[in-house]
Amino acid sequence: MNIHEYQAKRLLAKYGVPVPRGNVAYTPHEAVDAAKDLGGPVYVVKSQIHAGGRGAGRFQNNPDGKGGVRICKSIDEVRDNAEEMLGQVLVTKQTGEQGKEVNRLYVEEGADIKRELYLALLIDRATSRVTIMASTEGGMEIEEVAARTPEKILREIIDPATGVMPYHARKIAFGLGFEGKQIGTFVKFLSSLYKAFLELDASLVEINPLIVTGDGSILPLDAKMNFDDNALFRQKEVVEMRDLDEEDPAEIEASQHELNYIKLDGNIGCMVNGAGLAMATMDIIKLYGGEPANFLDVGGGANKERVVAAFKIILSDKNVEGILVNIFGGIVRCDVIAEAIVAAAQEVELHVPLVVRLEGTNVEMGKKILEESGLTIIAADNLADGAEKVVKATREAA
């Protein structure tokens, strides 16, 4: 789960992380009131969408105009820019050409920026530990820094038994070029950030840029936070920050049926039980020249209702021209899945090729149910056979 910049800063502030003053606004009038509360003389009006690169982005109604982050030097400028930005679609590197509509703004006090740095806490999958990443190249995409100047990326892997220790923070501080009192300030800053990361069950906290102001203060000019969906049951405050307008409607629908669904750009829909098997299914579809339209894991306890919901979600994507169902019957039996597939195919009026590969408990019973259903279902003997058949059937039906 993701949240907006202003929400991330509010959470971090509760943990003692110093953040610039600012207020959220949903209308131009609220933006003006927010600016008046700040007192000036410089204001920054920021589009709030779940995507990076807002400052370098462009609005669809004015592609040659200013981006989604604007510096204003008067209340009138705040009003004018808020009117231009609210309700418009902002396109960035991360949104794709479809962009995202800006429904809220964050009006923040201006800052005297002396240096821009990069700082993040994330889960390192290789070590299963929280890792601190930092760089002197703030304001840039960290992927670009890694590609061009990897030596400028600092890393510290944190032992969960000790947490962030002062020496971890000092090592990062020295690497970022802090001196004197700034070192102690950064140690406190990073310790607070780490505490927020753990207690809020975050999967990512990214500060880009982390700025040093003219008076030597250290502030997060931007803040991004992602959270572990599996821990949201104990993060009521975070859940309340969820903005459904920023999420794909199909993904919202999937979550209501306990389905793990992510929309992709291909034309072959996938329905699989198990995340690892789902990844393998997408890979083998690409191996045979196809493009998966989604990741969809129906889970080990799939039933008729869940399978029907899965089919509806897959077919809600207009790009889908074929479907591959790949089920390994372990906890759930193949005959139960087969009955659910038949019921789902009848209920949703399937109009694209459907290839089904079943394996595991009661697989012969499952195959018999499919054969006797009277539906045009293409049976596959194994995963490779299924991928090859669905790619071929999709091309022939196009």
TrEMBL record:
Pathway: Carbohydrate metabolism; tricarboxylic acid cycle; succinate from succinyl-CoA (ligase route): step 1/1; One-carbon metabolism; formaldehyde assimilation via serine pathway
List of residues binding ATP: K46, G53, R54, G55, E108, A111, E116
GO biological process: succinyl-CoA metabolic process; tricarboxylic acid cycle
Alphabetical list of SUPFAM superfamilies matching this protein: Glutathione synthetase ATP-binding domain-like (SSF56059), Succinyl-CoA synthetase domains (SSF52210)
Keywords: ATP-binding, Ligase, Magnesium, Metal-binding, Nucleotide-binding, Tricarboxylic acid cycle
InterPro entries in UniProt: ATP-grasp, ATP-grasp_succ-CoA_synth-type, ATP_grasp_subdomain_1, Succ-CoA_synthase_bsu_CS, SUCC_ACL_C, Succ_CoA_ligase-like_bsu, Succinyl-CoA_synth-like
Keyword Transmembrane applies: no
Cofactor: Mg(2+)
GO cellular component: cytosol; succinate-CoA ligase complex
Catalytic reaction list: succinate + ATP + CoA = succinyl-CoA + ADP + phosphate; GTP + succinate + CoA = succinyl-CoA + GDP + phosphate; (S)-malate + ATP + CoA = (S)-malyl-CoA + ADP + phosphate
GO molecular function terms attached to this record: ATP binding; magnesium ion binding; malate-CoA ligase activity; succinate-CoA ligase (ADP-forming) activity; succinate-CoA ligase (GDP-forming) activity
One Pfam family of this chain: ATP-grasp_2
Binding site residues for substrate: N273, G330, I331, V332
EC annotation from Swiss-Prot or TrEMBL: 6.2.1.5
Cofactor binding note of this UniProt entry: Binds 1 Mg(2+) ion per subunit.
UniProt cross-references to Gene3D superfamilies, sorted A to Z: ATP-grasp fold, A domain (3.30.1490.20), ATP-grasp fold, B domain (3.30.470.20), Succinyl-CoA synthetase domains (3.40.50.261)
Domain ATP-grasp positions: 9-238
Positions contributing to Mg(2+) binding: N208, D222
HAMAP family reported for this sequence: Succ_CoA_beta
Biological role: Succinyl-CoA synthetase functions in the citric acid cycle (TCA), coupling the hydrolysis of succinyl-CoA to the synthesis of either ATP or GTP and thus represents the only step of substrate-level phosphorylation in the TCA. The beta subunit provides nucleotide specificity of the enzyme and binds the substrate succinate, while the binding sites for coenzyme A and phosphate are found in the alpha subunit.
Family affiliation: Belongs to the succinate/malate CoA ligase beta subunit family.
NCBIfam families for this protein: PRK00696.1, sucCoAbeta
Subunit details: Heterotetramer of two alpha and two beta subunits.
Protein name: Succinate--CoA ligase [ADP-forming] subunit beta
Organism: Ferruginivarius sediminum
